Here is the input.
Amino acid sequence: MTSTVPNAVPHTAAQPPITMFGPDFPYAYDDYLAHPAGLGQIPATEHGTEVAVVGGGLSGLVTAYELMKMGLRPVVYEADRIGGRLRTVGFDGCGPELTAEMGAMRFPPSSTALQHYIDLVGLTTRPFPNPLAASTPSTVVDLKGATHYAETLDDLPAVYRQVAEAWQACLEEGADFTAMNRALRERDVPRIREIWSRLVTRLDNQTFYGFLCESRAFRSFRHREIFGQVGFGTGGWDTDFPNSVLEILRVVYTEADDHHRGIVGGSRQLPLRLWEREPRKIVHWPLGTSLSALHDGTPRPAVTRLHRTAGDRVTVTDATGDIRSYRAVVFTAQSWMLLSKIDCDEALLPIDHWTAVERTHYMESSKLFVPVDRPFWRDKDPATGRDLMSMTLTDRMTRGTYLLDDGPDRPAAICLSYTWCDDSLKWLPLSANERMDVALKSLGEIYPGVDIRGHIIGNPVTVSWENEPWFLGAFKANLPGHYRYQRRLFTHFMQDRLPAGKRGVFLAGDDISWTAGWAEGAVQTALNAVWGVMHQFGGATDPANPGPGDLFDTIAPVELPED
Here is the structure.
């Protein structure tokens, strides 16, 4: 629970830091971004050409920003608000410094391509208070009515240490953890591909729960039950039990669930700052050009129709009835929008890609926040000497409760509940105030002497992503047997392999990536799409800085047989 990875090693010169370098597509996106040669160039005859970018979330803004730097004119369409699931909101009646992260709120250091853009726009990060993290003063685990207070794993009953050890043994026994972790750190592409090819072939049809059950270390149902409730890294993972174990291995290999940091001031600042940023190095456009300036401050509205027209064009109709045709369209919204909210021509994608979109599995997720007058949880209980309240993991309705503050005697926020899947659906019929009442009742059973309600200074804010009309779910999580579908979506940017009549639409976003739910996946697939558009317009990368498409054939994801 203290760490996703067994025997986590500090990042030192002797032990290179882990990054999201594979395992499916071991390409160094961070090196690509850092190279002084840039991401590539397009012919001058193409400068100023419009490219539609559907979706103003992180993937869409990265795509648009980089295409603008190359001299193209991105036209961004956004149905709701810039930011997507980087959604930072305030509380009515409270100061602007007090915010809640309704979507992404914690980011691992292994997200190095994401970190490039965080640094680029001048944002700072700080440790996120996950369960038993070094920055978390204390954690309470409450299961089956038994409550345990802990500042380290050793403060919990012995069975929790046994569960942690069982998870470590399970990863070694069934997934070659140490070997893969070392290969990823050293960016040893042949070794990564050798290990992952074997595991994909063996485990594509296996659930996370089935993987645990096959391990000798998890023979005990009690251990599996505790692991599901408390889990590792960010907390309980039983909501992922039906999903493909390959999804879980991607997380643990890359330490995506460890050492999390939050963005000071809120994650939505990242896409907003990209929208306003004036690149210092830009082609065709004058210095001082930004995405905002190209759009007169406001993106185009929601896309309502996408269809192919003569001359290898893709025609976009928006909510105002405006119709425009493009040679290239990058679609970065959640892929289910192509099935429901947008009237689409079936010719947009090959039939196998439509099947992959149809089979995409999204997970539900709900959050509930309240503003409070101060971080009262740091007060000490005079009877026990313990923190009055702690980061809390429980099997009650709230599941995960996070305590968020900017220092003593300043207004703070509590994420009363963060839930996924069936636990999220339990909240769906309830209003924000009804959710707050239920959450406070659950927490009152854990902290009977703490008057949480008495510290609340404003109305609750809440979200259920499955009920958001432009999302219909929080993030993708592949089911067993879905590897082939994900491969089709991820590799779609390599369009020379497609029939001529199926080119020109590029898919991006974290649900297209191998690391759905992580902002890093949104960035990586945006960079794939940028390479694809550049290639379509006759452009190329500098030989000293080959892009993801240039190296594709040597690092392509494992291809499983169809028959």
